[in-house]
Design brief:
The protein is mostly helical. It has helices at residues 15-31, 47-56, 58-82, 90-104, 106-115, 120-147, 155-182, 193-201, 209-214; strands spanning 11-13, 87-89. It is 65% helix and 3% strand.
Length: 227
């Protein structure tokens, strides 16, 4: 029996929401590469021309790699969250849909960073896009905690994981702050995501819920083999 504060009829299994979210992340990550085409190389007639043209594409390639890796970090956070989120209601689904709206904008804002990095908005919109998407993802975990959608976690463990998720919020906010000066290079701050996550969490990660659920309960009166 799943414990939650509201009647079961107002919630549904989170598995279809999880699968749909996986698909949107995969599509957004794939669309990023569409800006990297041989047409961007211009007129190439020799190996030297090709090498020079590829070198001139270093910023588009850097923006692609950065956006792809940050999407991977966000997807990994999504995977970890939905290992614990069992049920979801309409509010939770709309929060998730808002996050996905921001995710599918990433290929567009990445192209703006590539083509208009000499302008302030060109450097700013991609970091802002990621910051808002990450913030909504953190808010989704807060919703799940308050709605009783995480039955396999103690409240203390859920709060610790929520604090750990603040790492990406903090780093993406700092990336926004420095983006007027360094553009998408500000995302290199995510190199500190692992240490900051562990510091904010304050202890080891909780046990995988799948392992917990797969372990059958001991029969009443059963004794240990070592007794």
């Amino acid at each position: 029996m799943i414990r939650r504060e509201r009647h079961p009829s107002v919630t549904v299994s989170a598995r279809r929401t999880e699968a749909y979210t996986d698909g949107v992340f995969a599509i957004a990550a794939t669309l990023l590469v569409l800006d990297l085409t041989s047409q961007s190389l211009g007129d190439v007639t020799s190996d030297a021309d090709l090498a020079g043209a590829l070198l001139d594409m270093r910023h588009p390639v850097f923006s692609f790699v950065i956006s792809f890796l940050v999407l991977c970090i966000m997807w990994m956070t999504h995977v970890r969250q939905f290992e614990w989120i069992v049920r979801i209601d309409n509010a939770g689904m709309w929060i998730n849909n808002l996050r996905l709206l921001l995710i599918v904008l990433v290929p567009f804002t990445t192209s703006l960073d590539t083509d208009y990095s000499e302008f302030l908005l060109g450097r700013l919109l991609l970091p802002v896009n990621f910051f808002l998407a990450i913030l909504v993802g953190w808010f989704q975990w807060t919703w799940a905690l308050r709605s009783g959608a995480i039955p396999d976690l103690s409240r203390d463990d859920a709060k610790r994981l929520g604090r750990a998720a603040l790492s990406a919020v903090i780093l993406s906010g700092l990336a926004v702050a420095v983006s007027p000066l360094v553009g998408s290079a500000g995302f290199l701050l995510f190199l500190f995501d692992g240490p900051l996550t562990r510091r904010l969490r304050g202890a080891d990660a909780p046990t995988d819920p799948a392992a917990t659920r797969s372990t059958p309960p001991a029969e009443p009166g059963a004794s240990s083999a070592t007794d």
